[in-house]
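Quick log. Single chain, no ligands specified.
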Amino acid sequence: MEKKNIKILIVLLLIAAISAIVSLGCGEKTPDGKQAGETPSEKSQGDEGDEAPSGPLVYAADYLPDKDYGGYEFRIVSPIAGIFVNYPEFWGDTEEETGEVQNDALYKRNRLIEERYNILFKQIGVTDWPELKPLFNKSVKAGSEDFDLCMLICREAWSSSLEGIVMPVSSLPYIDITQPWYAHDVNGQISINGKHYFAYSDECLNMFHQTMSVMFNKKLAADMELENMYNLVKEGKWTVDKLFEFSRMAVRDLDGDGKMTKEDRYGMAGRDDLFYGSFWVGSGIKTVGKDENDLLVFTGANEKLYEVLDHAWQNIWGNGDNIYYASSNDVETGKMFENNQSLFHVMHIGAIPALRAMETDFGVLPFPKYNEAQDKYYSRVIDGWILCVPNTAQDFERTSIIMEEMAIESKNYTLPAYIDTVLRTKHTRDDESQEMLDLIHLTRALDIGDTFYMDPVRNTYHGVIASKKNGFAAAVEKNMGSIEKVLNKANDAALSLN
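-> predicted structure:
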């Protein structure tokens, strides 16, 4: 494979010069004092002929060294692309361009990185996600060097990290999570004892896929003469009270049998475990926080949280209005929405493509604020598959360079393809929904108690709501011992890894 040509070197020099002269807001210096961020350009730093992604800016990092890895096979373990209908955004590769935008963006990203560093990507595929953690743990604990990266669901990535078998990304030489291709608010929550064992970047499309939203039926909203919900969002007036008010107005006993069943119309439809937690995360509340030493602390026994949850409980169950159609089945709630039997569908944005057959136009909104006094919207991240570095890897420098390049070129190629084309052009029906998707992407928030510690933390609150009986403080008090035991165990494990 030939070295980079003269044109690429010129582009790199121009980028460095521009970075030195222009202070870009998201191009702050790295810990080594090197510059990175957005670079005005018509081309990416790839080979001549590579088309730049849409928009005037291309992301680049001039702190990454020029390396030739002699055709090294860079191995990544992940589920086989497309095998999970609801999770199509796992790390993957594709052999050729097909004209399908997301496929071609993935192809360009991978080939660009391969050419730049003289490597070959190899996907080691598994057919079922429960295979991933046992494969990772067995290989690393045996001292093997079977792969360079392994994709794990976030809670299992966390538990493997606390077993001491994941190399912290904060210890890798070329990973800089302050850069704009990382999810800063989310990553701020997933450190422990001063270390980030993994970090979400724009490479992880699955995290955006699993960020909560509220879809609304535009025909029902027009028939009911509701306020313009896009304007409510922009004015900071989209609140849970508006969600409940509009939902209550939409309820109809369509078959006239005097009881609410799945044949009738509801205000909201959604999957229980995706719905309830959105109220406290959407209110900016976390059930697990950090102390001054970056160790886990239970913060879920506070009056503001109880107020938010009690308010939700009263509106969902306490008034007897049947505003919410609850199910554990994504497909069922999606069909209710698709059949005009719910005004709102409270679901992660990855559910949007499943509505491609819906004849009625729909829009997309962020999950609402608790009240207008809240300073911003918080879009709850319910999950996210993440690439982890085995601590048996032979060349951490190489791994960190390739990981950082994947993050950068994902921001340049695969993220725009996912958002702009797959979600917007094909499935959402207006320009304002596109603005809402941007807002959701920029307001992602994660609660460790909701994700890594679903049991016992999240399930404590979910159990109360699902039982249709109030009493959050009593439930927390009852489970406090088991919650603190789990968090203390995590802290002890993190401290032992120093």
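The chain has three domains: 6-61, 72-200+385-427, 212-382+430-496.
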